[in-house]
Specification:
- With 173 residues, this protein is an alpha/beta fold.
- It has one domain: Rossmann fold (3-Layer(aba) Sandwich).
- It is 36% helix and 14% strand.
- The protein has a 5-stranded parallel beta sheet with strand order 2-1-3-4-5, sandwiched between helices.
- Helix 5 links the parallel strand 4 and strand 5.
Length: 173
């Protein structure tokens, strides 16, 4: 994995987006953000075409399919269920685009605790993290800390570098 690569965050929850961006940027990595399935598909296609590369992709399992303006313009059209957006994106990346783990490491975040999500991620060999982990060792923060080393920031001493935002007492970021 190229340590200077950008991190792709695919999420539509404002609080989670802000926290993840802060956490990843504090480690020295720039971020590309997709806030819906359509935007994420374009970035994944760019990876498959060799136009983009990422050190890591962090994908929310449940999120919007398209942007708000497109939803408004759909009027009477049937809207797809967004419960499995992240699963569809991971299948798209691995199966349809053929992006291997060696080219793009993907992890997923979820609040769902059902066997369908776990089975889908197991089948795709994609690591799944619960947004409210039972322990710090099982957290996305611990995983990011292991796979994205902190890059030096010009002008800061190691003592000055922040390891990223902390969770509040409610467990949110």
């Amino acid at each position: 994995m190229n340590p200077k690569s950008t991190v792709l965050i695919v999420d539509d929850q404002v609080g989670d987006i802000a926290w993840l961006i802060d956490f990843v940027k504090a480690r020295g990595y720039p971020v590309d953000l997709a806030t819906n399935e359509n935007a994420a598909r374009k970035l994944l296609k760019a990876v498959a075409d060799g136009k983009k590369s990422y050190a890591l992709a962090i994908v929310d399992v449940m999120m919007a399919i398209t942007d708000m303006m497109s939803l408004i313009n759909l009027n009477d059209k049937f809207l797809q269920d967004s419960r499995d957006t992240g699963i569809r994106l991971c299948r798209y990346a691995r199966r349809e685009l053929g992006i291997p783990e060696s080219k793009l490491r993907i992890v997923c975040l979820t609040v769902r605790e059902d066997s369908e999500v776990k089975a889908a991620m197991d089948e795709l060999k994609i690591r799944l993290f619960n947004r409210a982990p039972d322990s710090e060792e099982e957290s996305i923060e611990a995983f990011i800390g292991k796979c994205l080393p902190v890059l030096p920031v010009e002008g800061l001493t190691p003592e000055d570098e922040d390891q990223g935002p902390e969770r509040n007492d409610a467990g949110s970021r």
